[in-house]
Amino acid sequence: MAKPFAITLDPGSSLANHTGSWRTSRPVYVDRLPPCNNACPAGEDIQGWLFHAEGGDYEKAWRALIENNPLPAVMGRVCYHPCESACNRAQIDAPVGINSVERFLGDEAIRRGWKFDPPPAASGKRVLVVGAGPSGLSAAYHLRRLGHAATIHEAGPLAGGMMRFGIPKYRLPRAVLDAEVQRILDLGVTLELNRKVANIAESIKAGSFDAAFLAVGAHIGKRAYIPAGDATKIVDAVSVLSSMEGEDKPMLGRRVVVYGGGNTAIDVARTAKRLGATEAVIVYRRTREKMPAHDFEVEEALQEGVMIKWLSTIKQAGEGSITLEKMALDDKGFPQPTGEFETLGADSVVLALGQDVDLSLLHGIAGLEIKDGTVQVAPNMMTGHPGIFAGGDMVPSARTVTVAVGHGKKAARHIDVWLRGTSYAPAPKHELASFERLNTWYYTDAPKTVRPQLDIIRRQSTFEEVQGGLDETNALYEARRCLSCGNCFECDNCYGVCPDNAVIKLGPGKRFQFNYDYCKGCGICVAECPCGAITMIDEDI
Amino acid sequence: MSFQPVKFYQTGTFTVGNRLLQPEERSVQASAKRYNSLNSGHRACQGCGEALGARYAIDAAMEACQGQLIAANATGCLEVFSTPYPQTSWQLPWIHSVFGNAAAVATGIAAALKAKGRSEVRVVAQGGDGGTTDIGFGCLSGMFERNDDVLYICYDNGGYMNTGVQRSSATPPAARTATTMAVGPEPGNPFGQGKFVPAIAMAHDIPYVATATVADLRDLEAKVTRAMELHGARYIHIFVPCPLGWGTASFDTIRIARLAKETGLFPVFEAECGVVTAVLKIRKRTPVEDYLKPQKRFAHLFGEHPRVDIIARIQAMADKNILKYGLLAEEC
After folding, report:
1. Taking CA atoms, what residue in B is nearest to A17?
2. What are the E-state strand segments in A374-511?
3. Which one of 1.10.10.1320, 3.50.50.60, 3.40.30.10, 3.30.300.20 gives the CATH number of domain A126-219+357-420?
């Protein structure tokens, strides 16, 4: 080929120059564990389902959610959302309203009648679940999804456990609970009501079950000795709350004193107020800061006119009144009696001092270890007796619906491998996606959506739901506040900011890939990744 | 009050792309089919701001004219690292003549296209700050005053980087270069020297003048797109950090550019026919120390005996820009 003067080579592309050889460290894509997921007692992949909700695909989001938790509408109302406490966005403005989006998805599923996928082929194994509370329902659901037959024996007249007999209607409307329970039953779970298991070994034998999961809950109210005359009515909180489900509402009188400082105490006081009590007073021996009840519930109770006597114990109950002793915190923060007394008018005293487990069904079972009134279980949720697993309030744990649901899932997975004779190795946990890993410049400023609340008059006199939900527009907004910590959300930043075009865009849902032929290892992609889903590793040189 | 639907897209337009936006609302750089006008294999340093800025700008210009674009390039890093004989990284017709005449070469190309009646083909000239504000300034001013149909893009990294980091008229005060050493009572580049070419370009009353940084892609692309809608002499001045010459970490290129804008040291605005029409507001106002400290060329201002007097003079420059261009949002 004839070339111009002084030209000896044909023009070529710089693609022949593999600048990747300059590199001393290379970027790699990683998935890190978002703090919300890490904090979720039910093991939800929150960031994962929010990702679908962000795009407006609510059904896909809901289906991702129910992989781990079959009760999103319940959860979106009663969960104390440790995910939001852990949320990285709290360090920018306010945490993402995960709980309200979850409720929106749960309500949307009920409204549109979304169903679970049918279970896989039957394994031929049968599992007995004792108790139709959150833990038992969760276990039955996951067992069905693993191909096993699940039968629930429930002592009560209705399914739901503490969700029905412990949580007041103004926090969890029963129609919501019924809808989510029914959806689990539609999966082919057999539910036998009013069927108290007296002896677990006999029940297993009689039904020829291959394994059992116990989740009987903690329904026996703890008592405290209070010297009392005959005239004062002393009842326990669990019975008050459970009798709310029956025809005969509890008769507590005009002046109700609740003894205790947990969430149950708050629930009872708010219930008493709604039943018409003119005074609902919580007596607690320590201060508000030390109170185990969640602060927002205390706040809501105070708004509704519930009164709280801090640093007080009940010394004696007389006719129409009780005697309180004032307490003072010592150096270690423990309340000590002061010898000062006061009198408080009271028609009834409700004890909310915690609950015990009815362990009578375990009599004569070999190998069990019972400590502090709870059944001890191994990390795989199995008791000391092979084939008998346990979870929920009857094992040592924080007694919340979410923890119980998590127990049910975990137990189901371990029951599955136990039945199949294989072993279950959970996927190794990713490194935590800490706030320092994020480049928060890229996120739009957006304050949290405030959920509507029922007006105060109706909150004092009716059992209508207090906390409102989000509608589609603000649920979408709230979902999009997610920072997607530690997991690529396809913002194209790495693809755009590479000075060497060394990032290959694989298309929607497929993320990206590095072209190490040209990547010089500058690390801009790592620095400018909003969610911290890229890391640099040293090259072997 | 009328109903306003909430438009909120997680990262909005801060990130390069956004899967939540409609395809037509996305950036040129987010497209899997972007031109990659400056291709892989070029020999720019790790984390080169100029290589990034050039691809951002030329890809946007190519998009705006369906790929009918010719580029004239001044001597400088961009020319050296992209075209070592016999290779080229450019995926468009591209010519390099000498250091100072890129604007004149582009004027000639535009004239030839006009003579041939090829009105669909557009012309861009580009160079670094040395080839633009110093050596090529006469040709550039001529191109402006004749209002030739050329878009001139200057990639400003504040010095002659490929020849060993010498001072240019765009080097900021107090910066250490090979020719302005950090010695004496007033170390580094003297105060009171240099020039801000965007302001000079505006003085020519040409149709369009804009500044941009590599830290804000959407803004940069919008400005190139706007410039391509117009005819006549247009000028875009893009701030591109240089890890080698500034002594910054290669991964910090975009962060440094962002800080230049957020401190107010580099005002980002656009002007039509000599009048400022829009300003990119500061989002999170930042003291100049945050910008200066990561750069080794300003290291002599810190350390055991920090030169707070000099830092204060640099802060005063930023404050003056903030006032002059109105860089603060209302609520700031």
Report:
1. B41
2. 374-375, 388-390, 503-505
3. 3.50.50.60
CB contact under 8 A, B253 and A495: no
Measured CA to CA, the distance from residue A365 to residue A468 in angstroms comes to: 47
Residue of chain A whose Cα is closest to the Cα of B32: A505
Pair of tokens at residue B17: 């792309």
Q: How far is CA B246 from the centre of its chain?
A: 16
Residue pair B16/A497 in contact by the 8 Å Cβ criterion? yes
* Fold that domain B33-325 belongs to in CATH: Rossmann fold (3.40.50)
Interface contact A524-B44, CB threshold 8 A:
no
Cβ partners under 8 Å of residue A95, min gap 6: A84, A85, A87, A89, A448
| Run of H or E residues at A538 | strand A534-538
In the block, which residue shows the tokens 């002896």? A199
Please state which of the ranges A69-78, A481-490, B21-30, B320-329 shows the lowest mean pLDDT: B21-30
Q: List the single residue in B with minimal CA-CA distance to A529.
A: B15
Hey, of B7, B13, B15, which one would you mutate to test binding to chain A, going by the most A CBs within 10 A of its CB?
A: B15
What CATH code is assigned to A37-114+442-479? 1.10.1060.10
Task: Tell me the average pLDDT across A410-429.
Answer: 92
pLDDT surpassing 50 at residue B2: no
- The string of DSSP codes covering A319-380 is SSEEEEEEEEE-TTS-EEEEEEEEEEE-SEEEE-S-EE---GGGTT-TT--EETTEE---TT
Quote the pTM value. Answer: 0.90
- DSSP, collapsed to helix, strand or coil, labels residue A404 as helix
Locate A194 and state its tokens: 């009013």
Predicted local distance difference test score (pLDDT) of residue B3 = 44
Domain boundaries, chain A: 16-31+488-538, 37-114+442-479, 126-219+357-420, 227-354
Q: How far is B124 from B52, CA to CA, in rounded Å?
A: 17
Place of tokens 């709310």: A244
Nearest Cα residue to A153 out of A126, A125, A131, A169: A131
CATH topology for the A227-354 domain: FAD/NAD(P)-binding domain (3.50.50)
Which residues lie below 8 Å from residue A119, measured CB to CB, with a gap of 6+? Answer: A144, A145, A147, A187, A188
Tell me what the mean pLDDT of segment A510-537 comes to: 97
A455: tokens are: 């007006």
What ranges do the domains of chain B cover? Answer: 33-325
pLDDT at A230: 66
Question: Each residue of B12-64: pLDDT tens digit?
Answer: 788 998 888 888 888 999 999 999 999 999 999 999 999 999 999 999 999 99
